[in-house]
Amino acid sequence: MFERFVTWLTDTIFQLGYPGIVVLMAIESSVFPLPSELVMPPAGYLAAQGRMSAVLAVIAGAGGSVLGALVNYLVAQKLGRPLLHRYSRYFLVSEASLERSEAFFRRHGEIGTFLSRLVPVIRHLVSLPAGLAHMRLDRFVAYTAAGAGLWCAILTGVGWYIGKHAEQLEREIVQRYSTQATLILLPVLILVVAIYVVRHRRRAGPEA
Predict the structure, then answer these.
(1) 80: region left, alpha or beta (phi > 0 left; psi from -120 to 50 alpha)
(2) Where are the domains of the chain?
(3) Distance (Å, rounded) from C-alpha 36 to C-alpha 81?
């Protein structure tokens, strides 16, 4: 049954093509929790078979992520704090969490946007506090694209590896390799945060 599901999923991504990837990743990046692990690895698998371009798939995935994130960002920015806080439960996030996130984004919007795109669950909600904090739109788009592009490249790479070694891999390989990719990426994220903190403190020192 698992093999049939994988075959169906891969064929579906192939039939939808790059526009389908854009739409699915836009949904994933909005408030609807559609896992990107169900979109990008099949694209990488197809790339390994020569049925799709891995580069174009990553570009489509990142582009879709930016579009979906922009919807959340503009909703939060245009509707404003009172309305969004009132209906925060419909966005699957508590009011307290929204307030903490908003305060964080007022100080660390860029690094927060980038890193959040690499973290499951919160990546599709990160645009709300960014919009509430009125983060600069060009920076929001740039850091969202960078983080989403990296994540899409990782998942596409996982799918490509599966496609090249399909006969040797076990049935739950997508979940296992996605988890390993996240664990490998974790030290890099910690290093990025550490560098950011040091630079932020150095800039804050003279201002104080």
Answers:
(1) left
(2) 2-207
(3) 29
